[in-house]
Amino acid sequence: MNPLTSVDPFMGSPLLWVVLAGLFIGGALSSATRRVSRSPNPERARIRKWVTACVLLSLAVVIGLIAVFLPGPAKIVDIRFAWAAGISAVVAFGALRFKKSLGIPIVVLLLAVVIVFGLFLQSIRAFTGETEIATIRVISADSATMRLEMVAKGSTPVLLSMKGSYFAPVVKVVIFNDLFVFMGARTWYRFEGMSSFDDNIRQQDTDYHFPQALGISEKIWRFFEDNETRIPGVKTAQIDLAMKRAKEFVVYGVRVQNDGGVEIVPKSG
Hints:
The chain is an alpha+beta fold. The chain folds into 2 domains: 3-127, no CATH class; 130-268, no CATH class. Helix content is 43%, strand content 29%. The chain has helices at residues 3-7, 15-32, 42-69, 79-97, 99-128, 178-182, 218-227, and strands at residues 130-141, 145-152, 158-163, 166-176, 188-197, 208-215, 234-241, 244-245, 251-257, 262-268. The strands form 2 sheets. The protein has a 5-stranded antiparallel β-sheet, with no helix packed on it. A hairpin with a 4-residue loop joins strand 9 and strand 10. The longest helix is centred in the middle third of the chain and has 30 residues, at 99-128.
């Protein structure tokens, strides 16, 4: 996985990069078509405008390459990205080349686009963000038993010998309404330990509990559980048991989603 695209899902799309490339192309065209005859030193102004145009065009080429290779060449094959680049180039050219007649309206339009774009980016971050709270490495596993190494966030590694074929982190979560998530709220969690189940989803008797649970305190969790219908912005307070079949030598990440829920995803193996 590309480390940049994992930081922000929007970085995995060519849209941001092609729009930026289009803006630089528009700036380069504006500089190249600027009249210098009325300048006090036309020759110097002519050299400056071509240097500026070449620098902007070079930046556009570099950003265009980023648009191809960062998200992946397969994603750039879409005519809509060409339209996006063309429109941004025209807007930048008009705003810079015809400042008196088009400058102010285009600046207002660009401000509106920036605000909408920012809200869109914030929504993507809010509803696709996650917090990894533990890593589980399966040392051995068969249909009846499994040995796991659990490394919880901010805790020392723990070796677990458990019955069954499925492991299930025991996580209590406080999930907030979508509006609060959009404004930056993240799911609160209390990671209490690990349980296990057999193939028939019957719980086994080899549960593990942390000496001190990770995350919010029991008092805070209990308060939200008892008053979830009376606290503004809280969608629910519940216990999540996400089960995963243990596969030998596979490493799993336990993640709490911003908008609620616990996921177990393979990281390697």
